[in-house]
Amino acid sequence: MGTLNVGNLGEYLREQRRNAQLSLRQLADAAGVSNPYLSQIERGLRKPSADILQQLAKALRISAETLYVQAGILDERDRDGIEVRTAILTDAAINEKQKQVLLQIYESFRRENAAAADAVPVPARPPAPPRRTAARPAGQGPGAGRAGQKKAAAKKAAAKVADAVAETVVARSRALKAIPAREKQHNQDERVIKRREGDDVVGA
For residue 21, what is the domain's CATH number? Predict the structure, then answer.
């Protein structure tokens, strides 16, 4: 929002009043202002409010935005915000001070958004390349490892069973071999005993 250019505004009002073929008093009466007050506006001595400008525009049958631009309230090059500013300035439910506060807030928001739009965006960092993992040989995955452990344990258990069976077989084999020897020794013992008994009978 620019500063109020009362000099250009006064000249523009005088020109529009003459084009409408209205006297200073006629325009003052139509706009609801005093004749001296309107004279001071045309000479650039008074700063009219947005409400007064709206009343003058209505009396001259021109758009209020035109007077706002001439007064420096609106920027002619900025057409986007004219409707918002006009709605604020023409709202009869709020006073002049409240209108100026709303316009200042609105302008501050527009400046912040414009600054953010003009800011140079920071280039995004390219995504990191995917981490490559060495391919595992076939049969060496997590599942294969567990299966291998189970297989090794089974082999170990089978080996223990085989050793136990082998020990049992050897023990039985030794026992079977010892039986004939004990029987032979027993038979020899019996023959010796019988021989002795025979000798004893003969000596008697």
Answer: 1.10.260.40
